């Protein structure tokens, strides 16, 4: 007899700039009216004039904001880098770890993580907290990078979970995926 898996995670992937974060925010907006959500998303930070990207912030679903990465930070502290961006690991951990570690006690029905990528995985504490989340079997909505030459072990682990559904976002399907993914979450046995 085939084992039936209940939905454990919805992973969203796609090329950079295709609209993964926008999709997550729209799903959260639709679900927020009916469900208790917890988590964070990343947001580009751009200069005022030209609109050139200078970094990324991490923003919780409750609206708290912190720095994730900046190009050429003014404080000259040594930080790990991903490309041209210096990653503010401590700031990221201060904002996100409480969401991961306290979520099961808060009655959270859906944990939202945008994203599980190179910058976020510079934090070993974040990686350990994510491992703990996976053991708790909480329903997870997360964005992950497209497959590339260097695989990320946590991303590969997420992709191999029983009960995981992976959606690839394109410019052609991103609007339709809002309702499709929202409906998938609502219909899941974990939220029933």
CATH class of the domain at 9-40 and 92-187: Alpha Beta
Inertia-based shape: globular
* Proportion of beta-strand residues: 25-35%
Q: Output the strand order for the largest sheet.
A: 5-6-4-3-2-7-8-1-9
CATH topology of the domain at 9-40 and 92-187: Rossmann fold
How is this structure best summarized?
This protein has five helices and nine strands; from the N terminus they run βαβββββαβαβαβα.
Describe this structure in words.
InterPro entries: AAA+_ATPase (IPR003593), Nuc-triphosphatase_THEP1 (IPR004948), P-loop_NTPase (IPR027417). Pfam families: NTPase_1. Keywords: ATP-binding, Hydrolase, Nucleotide-binding. One of its GO terms (molecular function) is ribonucleoside triphosphate phosphatase activity. The chain is of the alpha/beta class. It has a domain of 128 residues: Rossmann fold (3-Layer(aba) Sandwich). Helix content is 32%, strand content 25%. It has a nine-stranded mixed sheet with strand order 5-6-4-3-2-7-8-1-9. Strand 5 and strand 6 form a beta hairpin. The radius of gyration is 17 Å and the shape is globular. The model has no long low-confidence stretch (mean pLDDT 88).
Topology:
Blueprint: E1 9-13, H1 20-32, E2 37-46, E3 53-60, E4 65-71, E5 81-82, E6 85-87, H2 89-102, E7 110-113, H3 124-136, E8 140-143, H4 153-159, E9 164-168, H5 174-187
Parallel strand pairs: 1-8, 1-9, 2-7, 7-8
Antiparallel strand pairs: 2-3, 3-4, 4-6, 5-6
Protein name: Blast:Nucleoside-triphosphatase THEP1
GO molecular function: ATP binding; ribonucleoside triphosphate phosphatase activity
InterPro entries: AAA+_ATPase (IPR003593), Nuc-triphosphatase_THEP1 (IPR004948), P-loop_NTPase (IPR027417)
